[in-house]
Structures are given as C-alpha cells and as structure tokens.
C-alpha cells in the first residue's frame, strides 16, 4: 500500500466515505450505528463503506465487548499526498517550460 496510493484514492472517491473519514478524524471510536446516525445512509451501507476504508488502510476496527468501534488510520494519506505533490510538481515543471517557450 505504501507505494500505491490507488486504494486510498478509490476509497476517497465516494463522498460518503470522505464524510466517514471526516467523522472518524473528529471523533475516534464511533460505531457503525453512530456513523449511520450522522449520515443519510443505513447502518448496512456504512458497514460496507467501512470495509472499503479498512481495505485501503484508512480505518481500523477495535472490538469492545459487543461493539465494534472504528478509528481513522491516516498514515496511508501521507503516501497519497506525496503522490499528489510529486504529480503536481511535474506539471509545474512542464508549465514553466511551456511559459518559457511562449
């Protein structure tokens, strides 16, 4: 995962998952039911979104008795941000070359 930001971008492509990430960043330890209470989707839909976030390395489940609580694991975001900075830097270089030619 560290070298490939694809799973992070795929996970964050969905607005509901982005909102789940925002909520987990603000309040670690939320349950799927609590997340569903904050969003206009069912608990089952939240569970599916959480699976995708976990697969991308962006969320981690912690079992506490009968509840499963989720927390954001932001480390994969670093790799995705580094990829964006590198890609942006390449475009800046290309645009600078084009400006000099024009």
Automatic annotation (TrEMBL):
Which InterPro entries is this protein grouped with? ArsR-like_HTH, HTH_ArsR_DNA-bd_dom, WH-like_DNA-bd_sf, WH_DNA-bd_sf
Residue intervals of the HTH arsR-type domain = 1-92
User: What species is given as this protein's source?
Assistant: Baekduia soli
The cross-references to PROSITE patterns, in alphabetical order and at most eight, read:
HTH_ARSR_2 (PS50987)
Concerning SMART domains, the annotation shows:
HTH_ARSR
What name appears for this protein in its UniProt entry? Winged helix-turn-helix transcriptional regulator
Name one matching Pfam family: HTH_20
GO molecular-function term, one example from the UniProt record:
DNA-binding transcription factor activity
């Amino acid at each position: 995962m560290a070298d490939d930001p694809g799973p992070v971008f795929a996970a964050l492509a969905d607005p509901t998952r982005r909102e789940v990430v925002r909520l987990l960043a603000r309040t670690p330890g939320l349950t799927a039911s609590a997340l569903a209470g904050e969003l206009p989707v069912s608990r089952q839909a939240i569970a599916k979104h959480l699976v995708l976030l976990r697969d991308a390395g962006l969320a981690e489940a912690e079992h506490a008795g009968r509840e499963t609580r989720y927390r954001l694991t932001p480390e994969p975001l670093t790799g995705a941000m580094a990829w964006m900075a590198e890609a942006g830097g390449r475009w800046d270089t290309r645009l600078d070359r084009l400006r000099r030619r024009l």
